[in-house]
Amino acid sequence: PYLMIAASPPSAVELSWDSEAILRYQLEYTRHLQTNQWQSLGTQLEGSGFTMCVTNSVSEPARFYRLVLER
Description:
Layout: E1 4-8, E2 12-18, E3 24-30, E4 39-40, E5 45-46, E6 51-57, E7 64-70
Antiparallel strand pairs: 1-2, 2-6, 3-4, 3-5, 3-7
């Protein structure tokens, strides 16, 4: 699925994606793409068949996100 990211001032981002009911999703983030060390953002989320949305507060100047599909 595509992960959509929107700024949510003053210091947060909103992450959303279209989910499938049978699947589980794990959001992950890193501050540096060169290290390839990703950290989980919260717990696994079970798909609902609808758009899922998570708001994340950020304090770093840069943060990268990915969505991992768990079967």
